[in-house]
Amino acid sequence: MPNTTEWDEAKLVPESIYKQMGERGYLAGLLGVEFPADITNKRVKCVPPEKWDRFHELIITDELSRCGSGGVVWNLIGGFGIGCPPLVQFGKPELVKRVLPGILNGDERICLAVTEPGKSIKSHVNTQRLTMRRWWKRRRQPWL
Q1: Which of 13 and 32 is assigned the larger pLDDT?
Q2: Rounded distance, CA 131 to CA 94, Å?
Q3: Which tens digit of pLDDT belongs to each residue from 46-69?
Q4: Beta-carbon count within 10 A of 116 CB
Q5: Given its phi and psi angles, is residue 34 left (phi above 0), alpha (psi -120 to 50 degrees) or beta?
Q6: Which of 34, 43, 53, 135 could pair covalently with 25 via S-S, beta carbons 3.0-4.6 A apart?
Q7: pLDDT score, position 115
Q8: What is the CATH class of 4-113?
């Protein structure tokens, strides 16, 4: 990825990159579960959904890691990788069918929010904006 250094310094990867991952079927293939062919029509061109396995996930993750930036990799698949599998495995079917297609298409993001009792939040920077009748909270948090 030729822009890795600029993205790392800006602490921002263009949303178009995440969107392309959805359009190419990579996000659907990185769930850690069977390829969700019934939820999305996005496919990895070279591997049919019924033949997709964890080895293919490893290849995508390994190739992304070749950019040499943990920040870029985390931006693209970190929150997705820890937030989406619990939704798929434990979410109510109605919720999964409503929320998952937008995530797998690269239109929406997901993460896993966990509170840390006793940790200071003084250094957190928070902004809020109203989007599609939902409040989305964006938080930039230093490593604790």
Answers
A1: 13
A2: 22
A3: 888 889 888 999 999 999 999 999
A4: 9
A5: beta
A6: 43
A7: 64
A8: mainly alpha
Q: Which whole-number Å values give the CA distances from 103 to 5, 73, 141, in the listed order?
A: 26, 17, 23
Q: What angle do CA 14, 60, 35 make, to 5 degrees?
A: 100
Give pTM, 2 decimals. Answer: 0.72
Q: Which two tokens stand for residue 53?
A: 């396995």
Alpha-carbon distances of 47 from 40, 55, 58, 127, rounded to whole Å: 15, 12, 14, 40
N-term to C-term CA, the chain: 29
**For the chain, how are helix, strand and coil distributed in percent, rounded to 5?**
45, 10, 45
- For residue 47, what are its two tokens? 């591997």
Residue type, 118: G
Q: Name which of 30, 45, 34, 48 is nearest 106 in CA terms.
A: 30
Q: What pLDDT shows up at residue 118?
A: 55
Q: What pLDDT is stored for residue 117 in this prediction?
A: 59
Q: How far apart are CA 81 and CA 110, in angstroms?
A: 9
Structure tokens at 90: 């434990």
